[in-house]
Amino acid sequence: MIGIISYLVFFATVASILSIAVLGLNLQWGNTGLFNGGVVAFFGAGAYGTLILGGTPQAGQLGGFELPYLIALFGGMVIAGIVAWVVGLLTLRLRHDYLAIATFGVAVAFENVMRNSDWLGGAQGIRGFERPLREALGNGFSYNLAFFVFVLVLLIATYVFLERLIQSPFGRLLRAIREDETAAQSLGKSPSRIRLTSFVAGSVIMGLAGGLYATFYAFISPQDVLPILTFQIWAMLIVGGAGNNKGAVMGTFLIWAAWTASGWALSRFAPLEVQLYTGSIQFVLIGFVIVGMLLWRPQGLFPERLVVSQSAKTK
Amino acid sequence: MAQMAEPILRIDGLTRDFGEFRAVNDVSLSIRAGTITGLIGPNGAGKTTLFNVLTGMLKPTSGSVFLDGQDATRFSPDALFALGLGRTFQIPRPFAKMSVLENVMLAPMAQAGERLWGRFLQPSKMREQEATIRKRAMEVLDFVTLAPLADNAAGQISGGQMKLLELARILMGDPKLILLDEPAAGVNPTLTKILIEKIEELNRDGKTFVIIEHDMDFVMQHCNPVIALAEGRKAFEGTAEEAQNNTVLLDAYLGAQVE
Question: For residue B255, what pLDDT is reported?
Answer without folding.
Answer: 52
